Amino acid sequence: MISLVPAPPENLFADMNSENKRRHVFISHHHADDAEVDKLTSLLKQKGDDIRNSSIRAKPANQRRLDEGQVKDETIRRLLRMKISWAQTFVVLIGKETHSRPWVNWEIEQAEKQNKRIVGVYVRGGTQADIPPALEDYSNSIVAWNTDSIIAAIDGTANEFQGPDGSSRQATHEAVAVTC
């Protein structure tokens, strides 16, 4: 008997191994660092990962409405809470203006309230002085711009605290283990 069912391709399950997997993240950032969000997702995709980012990136017309106060803060907070809830891991891009952004601190506090894994990633040129206060209080890991370090921090296989150059540094808070 001749089978008319084609054999499955050899790589049918290639994307299901532990090295290449889907990651649901919320990337908190200052809107001036939108290009850095693209660089981060591209960096992680180069390793074969499927990155799903639920953060808000306002188009110019929407950014104008936000800047003019046409959208109520409670509307923004409700939307952000939903998007943070969807993510497995909450990532903060640490850039030159990040520490001064009130929405970034608010988002970090919401991620903490939702028991999310919180990871800081220095963008190129970011410094320890750029770390938002809430990130210092609640982060599980802060790492340099290095693919392996970022993936390990997102996955929770490493809880490192690094400087922008990748050197080790002390966490400013005690780690708390959470068991679900």
Q: What does the model show?
A:
- It is a single chain.
- This protein has helices spanning 34-45, 60-67, 73-86, 102-113, 133-138, 147-155; strands at 22-28, 50-53, 89-94, 117-122, 141-143.
- It has 180 residues and is of the alpha/beta class.
- The chain has a single domain (20-155), classed as Hypothetical protein MTH538 (Rossmann fold).
- It has a 5-stranded parallel β-sheet with strand order 2-1-3-4-5, with helices on both faces.
- The radius of gyration is 19 Å and the shape is globular.
Keyword list:
Rossmann fold; 5-stranded parallel β-sheet; alpha/beta; 14% strand; disordered N terminus
CATH H-level superfamily title: Hypothetical protein MTH538
Q: Termini distance?
A: 53 Å
Shape: globular
The order of strands across the largest sheet is 2-1-3-4-5
The number of E-state strands comes to 5
Helix content: 25-40%
Percent of residues in beta strands: 5-15%
Question: What is the CATH third-level topology name?
Answer: Rossmann fold
CATH class: Alpha Beta
CATH architecture: 3-Layer(aba) Sandwich
Estimate the mean pLDDT confidence.
Answer: 83
SSE-based structural type? alpha/beta
The overall number of domains is 1
**Spans where pLDDT lies below 50 across 5 or more residues:** 1-18
The whole-angstrom Rg is 19 Å
Number of helices: 6
Secondary-structure blueprint:
Elements lengths: L21 E7 L5 H12 L4 E4 L6 H8 L5 H14 L2 E6 L7 H12 L3 E6 L10 H6 L2 E3 L3 H9 L25
Compose a concise summary of this entry.
The chain is of the alpha/beta class. The chain has six helices and five strands; from the N terminus they run βαβααβαβαβα.
